[in-house]
Amino acid sequence: MNVQTRVKERAEEQASAMSNDQQSAIRALANDLHRLNHSVMRAVEAGVSVELVRSARHHGGDGQWGDLMIPVILTRAG
């Protein structure tokens, strides 16, 4: 079994254990991350370096948490 097939199977197993609301939130997050990655690539192509840094951690109250990110932008003088 190749690695990519196993990753897909694991994702499907995890999704089946989630509620519809959780699955919807994960799909929205994945879409937003895809758009973020494209934005980072556009910024790099425009001549800046981008580093994403955790600025805080959001806690949901029942043990869940998520990292909140900010961009650190570096430009080359000249």
UniProtKB/TrEMBL annotation:
It comes from Xaviernesmea rhizosphaerae. Residues 1-22 are annotated as: Disordered. This is Methyl-accepting chemotaxis protein. Residues 1-13 have a biased composition (Basic and acidic residues). It comes from the Bacteria.
